[in-house]
Amino acid sequence: MATYDSLFSALGLKEWCAEGKQDGPMSMADLLAKAKGDNAEPESLWDFPFPSMDVLNDSCAAFPQSRELTKGLEQGFLAVKDNLSLVLDPMTQPLSWALDGALYGMLTVPWWIIIPIMLAIVFLVTRSWKLVTFVAVSICLLAFIDYYEYAMQTLAIIFVCAFLCVLLGVPIGIAMSRSDTMQRLTIPILDMLQTLPPFVYLIPLIFLFSVTESKLYGIAIILYAIVPVVRLTNLGIRLVDKDVIEAADAFGMTPRQKLFKVQIPLALPNIMAGVNQTIMMSLAMVVIASLVSAPGLGVLVLRGIRNLELGVGLVSGLGIVILAVILDRVTKASLARINASQNQ
Amino acid sequence: MANDIKISIKNLYKIFGPTPDVALEYVKRGMNKADLLDKQNHVLGLRDINVDILDGKITVIMGLSGSGKSTLIRHLNRLIEPTAGEIRLDGKDVLELNEEQLRQLRREQMSMVFQKFALLPHKTVLENAGMALNIRGSEVADFEQEAVKWLGRVGLEGNEQQYPHQLSGGMQQRVGIARALVSNSPVMLMDEAFSALDPLIRSDMQDLLLELQEELQKTIVFITHDLDEALKLSDHLVILKDGEVVQQGDPQDILLNPNDPYIVAFINDINRARVLRVRSIMKKHVDNDAEYAGDISERDNLETVLSRSGGDTDKVFRVVRKGEMVGSLCMKDLTRALVPTGVSTPNNHKG
Fold it and tell me: Which of A280, B31, B191, B330 has the most neighbouring CB atoms within 10 Å?
């Protein structure tokens, strides 16, 4: 006898309920309840239960339990999984190649070539000797304590993923800025990607791809880090001075000319701010992605946690901070250069 | 060339709102702007505008903010689509153009100068000036000569490689004007082009525009809220109020014969001596009989004449145009013309 028995009898569903009577596997809670024997109606209004799936199941066996919902979801996912990976696998294969190639390249080319190249890039985008010195000192410090390899792996993954984020994110942002419908459809997805806990990305991906493939963490990082560049591209283009757009129209620019000659150049400061955020978020995710075999400093952090190696954990954590500071300062400095060249 | 109609606007209506066609019927039946907003929730932008814009002349459209003047000028190149009416450029209906033809019109027939300059901040002055040609597919090397020429003409020699933010407001607007000139379009639309500039620079820019116009004879449609500016620049003045034309015609004529209290209120504030010109109050004749105190140009304003006369009201000046006598101006007439006019007393001073 349970609380909502009367409801089902009032609705005339007694027979339907009885059909569902079966001795399926019991949950732990059911077993405990049975053992205690408190399957009776609540004594006071205070204990009156919410008509949840499990409570209704008590009264009517044919009513599904809530665990069937999660189980159904899982089964559904498993059912489409094979077909899905048939499509997704070849589509995402280049990502694996890119990641593996970048990792291989970063690690095979000797340090005395890689480090100068990186410093040259830093100088090219920032034109600041101070930053170049800072980056040089930081990387040499990491190399000196034998963390060079891990740091380079992390950087390689970030470069590939951030590059792909920009490659995919900017066009999506542009599409959003040009169509309100597109914006309405995309914003909820972006909101979801941004609020979903980073670990949750990994769960369906583990089912879809093999853990040995690098695209697994590549996809997780891209999904997590693409949001800011999409948002800020959209925002940047929408914020372009209406007067300048009107001038572009009045002088007869085609929509294409308007996009490339006016909107993108004027939105560039915002787009670059998005790229900065994207890079920082890739760094955050690459650490978490070490759970699914992403190489790099994250592996050391994980080792620190798993084996309680306090020193390793702390030093690798510090290494991540150093990488974060480098990436942030370098992208901010190049952003400042863009801003300086076009403040009105 | 002179006095041909370049652009003709006929029965133009613009109503902003979700169902302008429905609201248009109410407006045509005579509903006024306030009622339309109250009862129909539509904003009346323009009501029954009929203006002919003459080739090679400066037509000034004047009105306070909200009078619809910026809306009107944007109809000419269809940055705003009208609700009803027609706009003809050289006799062809602008409203029938498809997207490509419209783009062609904006590229080759009409250029525009904006209140807030609207220059591309990431391009140099030179590239901004050549924008119209760049849009048509020319590279910097192709339009450089043309752009440098016009930049020099508006007084920006040597600034070609600077960026707009390095220039003052007045200089930025000079770039805006150069940009319109480089496009080499016969029609120039100027939307409050000088309103954002301080008074001294504004006056310089007005002089520059008049000087350029003397030489180029473009068809210019100029929007302003400043009556002094309107009177200084216009060959044909259109006064808008609440989306309707209250009066249009020769500016001197409007000044001497205002037909609406709104215009009277406007012109009471201005310095008549500076705005009125000799040609609108002189006596027209060619006989060189009487004794004259001196020669004045028909385009001089009364202030100049006043200072020439030294305040003596007995003097009579000979009025000349390009060295030939066209009439005379008696100082007494001049003094009379300075008396403020009311709306109900048509006070025609034309001899």
Answer: B191
Tell me if B112 and A342 make a contact (CB, 8 A cut-off): no
Contact A197, A254 (CB under 8 A): no
Q: Do A246 and B118 touch (CB under 8 A)?
A: yes
pTM exceeding 0.90 = no
| Nearby residues of A154 by Cβ (< 8 Å), 6 or more positions away | A283, A286, A295, A296, A297, A298, A320, A323
- Amino acid A221: pLDDT: 93
Contact list in B for residue A236 (CB cut-off 8 A) is none
Quote the ipTM score: 0.82
DSSP 8-state secondary structure symbol assigned to residue A62: T
Q: Where are the alpha helices (DSSP H) in chain A?
A: 5-10, 14-19, 28-36, 53-59, 66-108, 111-126, 129-144, 148-178, 180-195, 198-208, 215-238, 242-250, 255-257, 264-288, 297-306, 310-342
- Which percentage of chain B shows pLDDT scores above 90? 36
Asked if the Cβ–Cβ distance from A342 to B122 is below 8 Å, we say yes
In the numeric block, the tokens 């215009």 are attached to B263
Q: Is pLDDT larger for residue B278 or for residue A183?
A: A183
Alpha-carbon gap: A275 to the closest alpha carbon of chain B (Å): 20
A344 interface with B at CB cutoff 8 Å: yes
Minimal CA separation from B209 to chain A, in Å: 20
- For residue A247, the chain B residues in CB contact (below 8 A) are 112, 114, 118-119
**What pairs with residue B112 in β-bridges?**
B189
Is residue A241 less than 8 Å (CB to CB) from chain B?
yes
CB contact, 8 Å: A6 with chain B? no
Contact status, residue B43 vs residue B37, Cβ threshold 8 Å: yes
CA–CA separation, A278 and B79 (whole Å): 37
Q: Which helix (H) or strand (E) holds B106?
A: helix B99-108
Mean pLDDT of chain A: 88
CA dist., res. A8 & res. A17, Å (int): 8
